[in-house]
Amino acid sequence: MADSDIKVELNMPQILDKVQNDQFGYFLIAEWSRLIQPYTPKREGNLERNVTFKPFEMTYHSPYAGYMYRGIVYVDPIYKVGGFTNNGGITYWSRPGVQKVPSDKRFNYRTDQNPFATDHWDQKAEQTGQKEKLIQAANEYLENYGHS
Question: Can you name the residues that pair with 51 across neighbouring β-strands?
Fold first, then answer.
């Protein structure tokens, strides 16, 4: 190497240790959960309550989470309804053991509790600028807590 050449090397293990660890992963997923919350469907809050967090990952465990996420009403294949009620619409139930099928209907999400509730809520949040907020929060976290 000539005297005028300058070699710069990145200490990749040290850099990766700052971003590939459970503490940072939990921070990011908790922040993402907070940022997408206004886009998540909510009636009684069961969908938001039945979530587990792992580093960089969250899983919704409500039995209807997949239906809500896809935004398509699934119905009984014979009766063509999403559920049955016998008490004026308070309690819904499905026929036991009957697999529902997708219909041509889409969910009409309530927005009284989460103002932007929609299907594919993580993607919608990303489209509306929440991803940039996550990146900013990640950078601030790394500035404040990412030092070795």
Answer: 60
Question: How many structural domains are present in the chain?
Answer: 1
User: Does 7 reside within a domain?
Assistant: no
Mean pLDDT value across the chain: 89
**Considering the domain boundaries, does residue 123 fall inside one?**
yes
When comparing pLDDT for 146 and 23, which is higher? 23
Identify whether the C-beta of residue 69 lies closer than 8 Å to the C-beta of residue 95: no
Which stretch of 14-18, 56-60, 134-138 has the lowest confidence by average pLDDT? 14-18
Q: Report d(CA 75, CA 79) in Å as an integer.
A: 8
Q: Is 87 part of a structural domain of the chain? A: no
Structure letter (DSSP) for residue 99: P
Residues 6+ apart with CB under 8 A from 69: 60, 119, 120, 121
Query: By residue range, what is the domain housing residue 116?
Result: 22-59+111-148
pLDDT at 133: 97
Q: What is the pTM of this model?
A: 0.81
